[in-house]
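FW: tagging you since you asked about this chain on Friday. Here's the raw sequence from the shared folder, copied in full. Didn't touch anything.
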Amino acid sequence: MSDPGTPGVSVVICAYTEDRWEDVLAAVASVRAQSRPALETLLVVDHNQDLLDRLGKEYEGTGDVRVLANAGPRGLSAGRNTGIAASRGDVVAFLDDDAVAERDWLKHFAEAYDDPRVMAVGGRTEPLWASGRRPDWFPEEFDWVVGCTYRGLPPGRVRVRNVLGGNASFRREAFDAAGGFATGIGRDGNKRPLGGEETELCIRLSRARPDAVLLIDDRAVIHHRVPEVREHFRYFRTRTYAEGLSKALVARSVGAEKGLESERRYTTRVLPAGVVRGLRDALLARPGGAGRAGAIVAGVLTAAGGYLVGSVRARRSGVTFSVVAVEEARRD
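HL: got it, structure written out here
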């Protein structure tokens, strides 16, 4: 049982394809196995009636899992907003549909909210490579490409500009103050793997509540599946380019100073150190050293190209996303 003073936590898992059926079941099972029980788990299905019906039957009659249809436009942001609106918890946590949480995941999230200034808490996401091991050429500094915690983030429980959406939680008040996730930034069912919606929300939240504290606690761990297709350089290049496009939209919304604040440190400190480390490994004949150094350089150039293209498009067409208020669902 949880301590009486800790908040009730609703967990939102957004799903969109039957290809991840076993992954979704594993994600829900990991929430049910938490040492600090969730108040509820909400499975939000993104415009897929067959999956909605199948999950509805799977969890029919359970008191702790509810299956909902995305009430907004296609995409992850609208799905999350649907889950927020239907949730009953004081805190809303988000777990990717292809990830499993360690047993104390929610415990570490909930403890951080003892401080009333804390509006968001994220955790650490570890990759589960389909091949069983990290590709030699794949730099840890770019693990965000596969939705995981990357080298360069500070350890422990620390203040950050933004949490990472696949392993994150927010106090309900945060959505009352800042609105929900913006639609039109993140993934929406298109082939291009866009992102950045959680960054935009966190910056918007900090502006709406200047006293807000946003944290990452690296003890709140989930394990995220990385399919074989994402272990190849082609996906790496596509994802870094898409991130540049996304950052351009975020910067257009909140300004380049805040929108690129963390990225400046990352590109001027973390990545050069990674290149040096890769070249050193190459000199020592360690596997993949030159490849990692080259991938870092290629990733920077590709993301920069995406940012330039995205900036031009944003100036020509204006901001192409919208923020809506997240209304609480009616309670019986």
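FW: The CA atoms of residues 44 and 252 lie 29 Å apart.
HL: agreed, and The first helix runs from residue 21 to 32.
FW: great, closing this out.
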